Amino acid sequence: MLKARIKFRKYGVMKFIGHLDIMRYFQKAMRRAEIPIAFTGGYSPHMVMSFANPLGVGLTSDGEYFDIELSESVDFAQAVRRLNEAMVEGMEIVNMIEISDDKKKTGMAIVAAADYLSEFVMEHPVENLADKIDAFRSQPEIIVWKKTKKSEKDVNIKPMIYDMREQDGKVYMLVATGSVENLKPELVMQAFGKFLGIDLEETAMRHHRLEVYADVGSEEQRHLVPLDQLGI
What we know:
Helices cover 22% and strands 36% of the residues. It has helices at residues 19-32, 76-86, 107-110, 129-137, 185-196, and strands at residues 2-10, 49-52, 60-70, 91-99, 111-121, 143-147, 152-156, 161-167, 170-176, 204-215, 224-226. The two termini are 14 Å apart.
């Protein structure tokens, strides 16, 4: 089977659509675009489709990914065009590339980081934002109450924040993402808001994912590359 990786954007009202509905949406889009996607065997076959670190509800993104298996080869440029013709407002296919059939290199397995632009939606912007981000990051620890599927506990998220700085009046952050460590931008901004003394119950926030990365470096040196740069 030929394996392919599809990159797409999610914006506008589609940010309110959850992951399960996004999966169903793309299943229908594959049929409409006549993409020869492969199916599993057995009594209840389904499309072979795997999403890399699905986006949370309420977030927009320029860098979402899912991997598929194809039953026959296709012209990727034409496939992108047909898929975009089947898209609704708020969804756009960016590209489609062939990837290795190594299971260890699937999108879900290789995700290591993601970067975001986040902002407080406030009448008056935070003054000296860059300096305050530097002061926030310079703390010895950044302890937050983190919930997981199995437990709730205090966690030091500072090692999971690879980069954080002011960018065009917003907060840019590059954070650990994936199955090993996963830090949501909402949690970082909640900690930052608490550091600033901002009541987050009365302050809305916007988060936009820019890209999702794999780490192709060594244990000593991290080297992050976008998932769509790992094609054959």
